[in-house]
């Protein structure tokens, strides 16, 4: 009788076992090169995200500063209508270390704060004119009833001013003091006077994110306009 049974080969491998071993090889882990590529991609994406965020924030601050500057100009016009002149800083060259190693001129910002908010008047040349007799000449950050008559910027938002040391200043959205220079006026009508401003009335500007030309005067940029390339200005 013929034996129809077939011998079973011991070399036979079950197909599921092969798949299991193949899957194990593919999931063993990342190689060093693969890890480096992944890390590099993460770094690139993070840099793009942070760069885009910083760019958007800078643009937002510039727009806020532009709007603030327009508001200051309108308030200065009201000041002129009331007193017949624009405010003159008592100490236009006064400076202060706003940040470590960064000294800014603050005389104009102090003058603007008092002229617009009405809080004190000792930073304005002849500022006692029109001030309430009961009002304190020094700024204290508080708005008092006796100072109502000195206000030219009603409902000034808190974000527009800041106390730095003992100084109260008008600031831009970059937390830098606004720069302000009143045009030089000749002592006698018709006399020649060296110009101190670009405009015939006053120069008003924000240094924005410029940390290089922080002590540059507006009149200096006439010969070198690139110095004011980052500024938000009224000329």
Low-confidence stretches: none
Gyration radius, in Å: 34 Å
Topology as H/E string?
Answer: HHEEHEEEEE
Largest sheet, strands/sense/barrel: 3 strands, antiparallel
Mean pLDDT: 87
Structural classification: alpha+beta
Beta-strand share of residues: 5-15%
What would you note in describing this structure?
The chain is 32% helix and 12% strand. The protein is of the alpha+beta class and 235 residues long. It has one domain (43-233). The strands form 3 sheets. Strands 5-6-7 form a 3-stranded antiparallel beta sheet. Strands 1-2 form a two-stranded antiparallel ribbon. The protein has a two-stranded antiparallel sheet with strand order 3-4. It is elongated. 27% of the residues are buried. The mean pLDDT is 87.
What's the layout of helices and strands?
Blueprint: H1 15-26, H2 32-83, E1 95-99, E2 102-105, H3 107-117, E3 161-164, E4 167-170, E5 179-182, E6 202-206, E7 232-233
Antiparallel strand pairs: 1-2, 3-4, 5-6, 6-7
């Amino acid at each position: 009788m013929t034996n129809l049974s077939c011998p079973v080969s011991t070399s036979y491998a079950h197909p599921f076992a092969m798949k299991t071993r193949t899957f194990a090889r593919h999931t063993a882990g990342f190689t060093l090169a693969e890890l480096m590529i992944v890390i590099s991609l993460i770094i690139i994406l993070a840099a793009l995200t942070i760069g885009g965020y910083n760019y958007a924030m800078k643009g937002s601050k510039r727009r806020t500063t532009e709007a603030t500057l327009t508001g200051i100009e309108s308030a200065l016009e009201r000041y002129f209508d009331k007193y017949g002149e624009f405010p003159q800083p008592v100490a236009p060259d006064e400076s202060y270390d706003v940040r470590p190693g960064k000294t800014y001129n603050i005389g104009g910002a102090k003058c603007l704060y008092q002229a617009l908010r009405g809080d004190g008047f000792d930073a304005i040349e002849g500022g006692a004119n029109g001030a309430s007799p009961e009002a304190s000449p020094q700024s204290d950050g508080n708005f008092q009833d006796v100072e109502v008559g000195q206000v030219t910027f009603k409902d000034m938002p808190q974000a527009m001013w800041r106390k730095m040391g003992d100084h109260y200043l008008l600031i831009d959205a970059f937390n830098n003091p606004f720069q302000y220079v009143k045009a030089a006026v000749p002592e006698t009508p018709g006399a020649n006077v060296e110009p101190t401003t670009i405009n015939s009335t006053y120069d008003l500007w924000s240094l924005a994110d410029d940390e290089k030309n922080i002590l540059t005067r507006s009149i200096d940029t006439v010969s070198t306009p690139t110095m004011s390339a980052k500024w938000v200005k009224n000329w």
